[in-house]
Amino acid sequence: MRDKDDRRLQRQIDMLARPFPALRGPARALRGRGWAIVRVPTAIVLILGGILSILPFLGAWMLPLGVLLLAVDVPMLRRPASAAVIHVRRWLSLRLRRFKK
Questions:
Q1: pLDDT in tens, 33-63
Q2: Secondary structure (H, E, C), the chain
Q3: Which of 5, 35, 65, 70 lies in disulfide reach of 43, CB 3.0 to 4.6 Å?
Q4: 70 with 77: CB under 8 angstroms?
């Protein structure tokens, strides 16, 4: 079951990086095995920055990014994080379709 959740999360991260070709390389590199020592502290700092932000638009992006980075290393977070990414991608897709009409 854990492999399925891991593959789903990896697929969603790839889908997020697809529109931004410059982010594909760093996104793949950060998911490597040796990068956990960088990923976990970065994720914790992003989550704390998102929670403690003074203005919502300055820190709102930090919380989901931190959770997504932490989900790579914490199996319990993989399923909720990938489900949230899917939900946000569908919501944005619907909004873009409505906007284009």
A1: 888 899 999 999 999 988 888 777 777 888 8
A2: CHHHHHHHHHHHHHHHHCCCHHHHHHHHHHCCHHHHHHHHHHHHHHHHHHHCCCCHHHHCCHHHHHHHHHHHHCHHHHHHHHHHHHHHHHHHHHHHHHHHC
A3: 70
A4: yes
Instruction: Write down how long the chain is.
Output: 101
> What pLDDT, on a 0 to 100 scale, did the predictor assign at position 20?
85
pTM: 0.81
Neighbour-count burial for 44-79, b at 16+ CB within 10 Å, e otherwise: eebbebbeeeeeeeebeebbbbbbbbbbbeeeebbb
Asked if 50 and 36 touch (Cβ cutoff 8 Å), the reply is no
Is the model's pLDDT at 97 over the cut of 90? no
With cut-offs at 50, 70 and 90, classify the pLDDT of residue 1: low
For residue 7 the two structure tokens come to 């593959």
